[in-house]
Design goal:
The protein is mainly beta and 765 residues long. The protein folds into five domains: 198 residues, no CATH class; 186 residues, Peptidoglycan recognition protein-like (Lysozyme-like, 3-Layer(aba) Sandwich), CATH 3.40.80.10; 86 residues, Immunoglobulins (Immunoglobulin-like), CATH 2.60.40; 83 residues, Immunoglobulin-like; 117 residues, Galactose-binding domain-like (Jelly Rolls, Sandwich). The strands form nine sheets. Strands 30, 37, 38, 39, 40, 41, 42, 43, 44 and 45 form a ten-stranded antiparallel beta sheet that branches. Strands 1, 3, 4, 5, 6, 7, 8, 9 and 11 form a nine-stranded antiparallel beta sheet that branches. Strands 20, 21, 23, 24, 26, 27 and 28 form a seven-stranded mixed beta sheet that branches. It is elongated. It starts with 16 loop residues before the first strand and ends with a strand. The N terminus is likely disordered.
Length: 765
């Protein structure tokens, strides 16, 4: 395997470069899966070669030192390290890179978070560990420029000794296409094993890793101004911090608990084992991990970190980012393995971190002073102002619940730990933390960022309880806050806690469990007895906590509505013609629970309340069926229909008294009308029906007329109008049933305008 170093084009004074490259052998790979993909898939296949390029900084000039812009071999992750692993550099280190085949990026800061890796172990005791920034994923690049500046105004601060630029090439696996069958509907994780995976240890035929040193050329001269250094203070966290620590008088311990190279069998967690991309699957470089893992005896707390890299990475690159972090932690920081126990990307895909078994209490190098008997996960990216997506929250909650659950520890609880170093807390100091805490709780750092730190409360709730459970609805019809159905309904609910952390759901009717579903279910069908009930959903977490939704009222009803009054037609005031009579349709319905609506289905359509009236018109002399359908809120229905006929009785068929004249015009019904001016002149009609109306012409010379029904005066109408109005219904009366009646019209003889012009009667039979 031929390895080339950083390409230079000139002087080399004061700068050294070194490259370490490693091949990882494997027979299975990783599938990049996109939702809905049904084409062939590209599968990672064969070994992956990683490389570390290191560049020593020149001697510092006062409080500043830089590596000018230059060409390099390919890399995708960049960081800066220095000799003293416990030095907390207070300055700023900025970097800009050139994408392969692209342009130069803006200046970007490298995060200096103050974590110093392991407290114990051969790397630390042998002096191999180095301090440094967090590595920054920049994508595949072939050019770099970097500058380090001490904190402004701090005369005592100096550029750290042994400053070194670290350029990591995580390698790119060879790819081959495979058929989409069995892959296209994969779960929303971009990396999945596609074959039986063998251990990815180097084979005897693989060349041993080699170190190659190349000569450093002079930089290409480019006028680029680096950003001025600034001193910033991390804003206060969004969450309430843990209680103040209490110091005990006990002797300072050398470690928080005993450790072991051979762990006891892992206890079973009540939480299902989370799905992870294993080290074999993300192609960890096992050849650089030269020592066996160390183990604690339990997992008391779970720390959340961010890697302080870019958030714009593609989830298809997550495995490469994890490989890069491994190389950086081992080759650059001088640790034995990747520091985190787990890593997770913004798509919610979890990666196995430090080797030793995800079910074991592996001691990592993640939270200085509190690495033993704790576990940690790092989110790929920076989450200072932007929080992590729900999928990533769910992944963290599941891993935390799994690890804490192995040892019966409550993710919502607190724990008192003893500091194993002199750091943010003194050696031997006892500190109370949330069992799921942020890196900043234990170490003086901004990690995991304000936004992510503010989300830890939700993550704890998801890890320990059925969080965000809500009964979203019942099938049937909803009126206000009550649902109505006949005999069955389906309850639906939503929840924020991942399904893997939910043991089951129980559906309660009137407080009793009537259905039990799996934790993946989000609905259940119910059969209800007649009457009013309450429905609730109770979620049971794998750790035992329960959550129950507020009660929702539902009414089961199979009784149909009734009509206490059939559709009934009555005459009303308004204009009439030979084809139109103004009428009012009335009805009355009832239900044992509640009528939702009444629909008119013939001769026209409309939707109305349970009882009421509706003004419309109909054709005279024609029998019309009026049909209606009542429906209650449960969907039960009843129909009712009645037929009615409006009939004209012309004035010519009336019995007259007094003097009456005749007007002829097409404006009158039948072409003529009777008129009288003398008081006492009358017209009488006899009919059998349930409703009647008087039709007259209104003019400026028209006066009043008295109306008698069955010998009793019931009304006096005034026929005055400033404009002539023909064929006007000026009075109407209805009865509850049909009967024989007499209607008499008597001229009142109004002074100055005594005339009455009548156009007959209309009645309904």
């Amino acid at each position: 395997m031929k390895l080339t170093g950083i390409r230079w084009s000139g002087r080399t004074a004061g700068i050294g470069a070194a490259i370490v490259a490693t091949a990882v052998a494997g027979t299975a790979g990783i599938v990049a899966v996109g939702f809905g993909d049904d084409a062939a898939k590209w599968v990672a296949d064969g070994p992956v070669t990683t490389a570390l390029h290191t560049v020593d900084f020149p001697a510092a000039n006062g409080r500043e030192v830089s590596i000018p812009q230059r060409d390099t071999d390919r890399f995708a992750m960049v960081g800066v390290t220095w000799t003293n692993p416990k030095l907390d550099f207070k300055g700023t280190i900025s970097v800009r890179t050139r994408a392969v085949g692209g342009g130069w990026s803006d200046w970007r800061p490298l995060e200096i978070d103050g974590h110093f890796g392991p407290e114990t172990g051969s790397a630390a005791t042998a002096g191999k560990a180095r301090g440094g920034t967090d590595p920054l994923w920049v994508g595949f690049s072939d050019g770099v420029e970097v500058r380090a500046v001490t904190a402004s105004g701090r005369v005592s601060d100096r550029i750290p000794a042994g400053l070194r630029l670290e350029l990591v090439d995580p390698g790119q696996p060879k790819r081959r296409k495979v058929a989409a069958a069995g892959v296209g509907q994969a779960r929303p994780e971009r990396f999945q094993p596609v074959a039986e995976v063998r251990a990815l240890e180097p084979t005897p035929t693989d060349p041993a890793p080699t170190d190659t040193t190349t000569t450093a050329p002079a930089p290409t001269e480019t006028s680029t101004t680096a950003p001025a250094p600034t001193e910033t203070t991390a804003p206060p966290p969004a969450e309430t911090t843990a209680p103040a620590p209490t110091t005990t008088s006990a002797p300072a311990p050398t470690a928080t608990t005993s450790t072991s190279a051979a762990p006891a069998p892992a206890p079973t967690s009540p939480v299902p084992t989370p799905k992870v991309v294993t080290r074999a699957e993300w192609k960890a470089d096992e050849s650089i991990v030269t020592e066996p893992p160390s183990y604690g005896t339990t997992v008391k707390a779970f720390w959340v970190h961010h890697t302080a890299g870019t958030n714009t990475y593609s989830c298809a690159d997550s495995a490469a980012i994890v490989r890069g972090i491994e190389v950086y932690h081992v080759k650059s920081n001088g640790w034995n393995d990747i520091g985190y126990n787990f890593l997770v990307d913004k798509c919610g895909v979890v990666f196995e971190g430090r080797k030793g078994g995800i079910d074991k209490p592996v001691i990592g190098a993640h939270t200085y002073g509190f690495n033993t008997d704790t576990s940690a996960i790092a989110v790929l990216g920076t989450y200072i102002s932007t929080g992590i997506p729900a999928a990533t929250q769910d992944a963290i909650a599941q891993v935390a619940a799994y690890k804490l659950g192995q040892y019966g520890n409550d993710p919502l609880g607190k724990v008192t730990l003893t500091s194993g170093v002199d750091g943010k807390y003194a050696l031997g100091q006892q500190v109370t933390f949330n069992r799921i805490g942020g890196h900043r709780d234990a170490v003086a750092t901004e990690c995991p960022g304000d936004a992510l730190y503010g989300q830890l409360g939700v993550i704890r709730s998801k890890a320990a309880s059925v969080y965000g459970l809500a009964l979203t609805g019942l099938t049937g019809t909803k009126n206000g806050t009550t649902y109505y159905t006949k005999t069955t309904t389906t309850a639906s609910w939503s929840v924020s806690t991942p399904s893997a952390l939910i043991s089951r759901f129980e559906v309660l009717v009137d407080g009793s469990v009537v259905a039990t579903t799996a934790g993946t279910a989000r609905s259940a069908a119910l059969t209800l007895a007649q009457g009013t009930h309450t429905v609730q959903v109770r979620g049971v977490h794998t750790l035992g906590r329960t959550a129950t939704t507020p009660a929702q009222t539902v009414v089961a009803d199979t009784t149909a509505p009734t009509f206490s009054q059939v559709p009934t037609l009555s005459l009303r005031t308004g204009g009439v013609s030979s084809t139109v009579v103004p009428v009012t349709l009335g009805w009355r319905s009832a239900d044992n629970v509640a009528v939702r609506s009444v629909a008119l289905t013939a001769p026209t359509t409309g939707t109305f309340a349970a009882s009421g009236s509706y003004g419309t018109t109909t054709k005279p002399g024609v029998t019309t069926a009026w049909s209606m359908r009542a429906q209650d809120w449960s969907g039960n229905t009843a129909t009712s229909s009645a037929s009615w006929t409006p009939v004209f009785i012309p004035e010519a068929k009336a019995t007259r008294t007094g003097t009456w004249g005749t007007y002829t015009s097409s404006n009158y019904l039948g072409g003529s009308a009777l008129t009288a001016t003398a008081g006492g002149a009358s017209l009488s009609w006899v009919f059998t029906g349930r409703s009647v109306s008087f039709v007259a012409t209104k003019t400026s010379t028209s006066g009043q007329a008295h109306i008698y029904v069955d010998g009793v005066k019931v009304s006096t109408v005034d026929l005055y109008s400033s404009t002539v109005k023909y064929r006007q219904v000026v009075w109407a009366k209805s009865w509850t049933g049909s009967g024989r009646h007499t209607v008499k019209i008597v001229v009142a003889g109004t002074s100055g305008r005594p005339r009455v012009i009548t156009d007959g009667l209309v009645y309904v039979r």
